[in-house]
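Long-time lurker. I teach an intro course on protein structure, and each term I like to show students one example going from raw sequence to a predicted 3D structure in token notation. This year I'd like something fresh instead of my usual example. Would anyone be willing to generate the tokens for the chain below so I can use it in lecture? Attribution to the forum is fine with me.
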Amino acid sequence: MQITILAVGKKMPSWVEMGVATYQQRLPREYRLRLLEIAQSRDNEASKRVQAEGKQLLAKVGADDLVIALNVIGKSWSTEKLAENLQEWQSDSRRLSVLIGGPDGLSDDCLQRAQLQWSLSALTLPHPLVRVILLEQLYRAHSILINHPYHRA
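-- Reply from a regular --
Happy to contribute to a lecture. Here you go:
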């Protein structure tokens, strides 16, 4: 299974890069994890920024990809439910693309393209932190699937 995380924002703080690298190393190679970053739009108008960023994100999504948009108003999953989903996605031959918007969120086009909208929290999270949380939760879900003690620690 290939998992591509498409995120708005480059030049993350070192703590984000360290967190991402830690969980990238922990996830098994068969997940073929990729993190693709796009630059934040510099337009003065928020709606135009979101539209421009959305076009860049969607340009990197494959036609047959299963797309998950991270969205505060999306569906909330327990870690156990994420593990179930991860197992299902592993048996599916499609690539998985997870979209992380910038400070202004994701465009309507991104939300419409997504088959699933997932909320990591009802809280507003800083978009750099979302990368680390997402990867940690994928690793935790994987640990459940292989009965690794990490989930219970």
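Some talking points for your students: The chain has a mean pLDDT of 93. Residues 90 and 115 are 16 Å apart (CA to CA).
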